[in-house]
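Please check both lines for our workbook:

___
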Amino acid sequence: MTVKHFLVFCGTVLAIACQKTDEQEFIQQQKAQAARTLVLGEIKRGWHFHTPSLRPDTQNLVRNWAELRQFSSELAQAPGASIGGFQQKAKTLSKKAVELNKSIPAEFDKPEVKSRIAALTTKINQINLYMNIREIPAAKITALVADADAAWSALYREMNEIVQKSKIPLEEGESDILMMQDPSRAIPDLATQ
């Protein structure tokens, strides 16, 4: 009889211990879910990209730049209502940002524009990185979204400025000075060879 009582006692203790473990796991899962909900809410509040306006003449020059148009439309679309949706959006934006350098129109194929694209790409890649770590830092992502939005605006301002500067007529003799400054036109120095 004592062996039976001992086995019943052990079974009861084991059942109670398992029940407490299940309750603890359930509580931990609820805490993790609440934390993810808070992170998601903070990211949703900070996820705002504003597409600046382009001058009509600048719009005319970028209308064939498909990568810019695709990136802009991807920014305008809201991510899904879950963290997975934001992770997918960050991944897609990262791919689209890298593609911006593919076919830059000749008028904008300048170091000023390329550096702004590089800054934008870096910020978008950082957002993608932070969205895909275990403990998502919502405040850091919100700050990076604001920085990426500023880099996006800077790119548009630079393109507008390039078009505006191109309309300024050259002064008399300025084209000759620019040609003389061109290093490809220099006379080779035979003494150093």
Remarks:
- The longest helix spans residues 2-46.
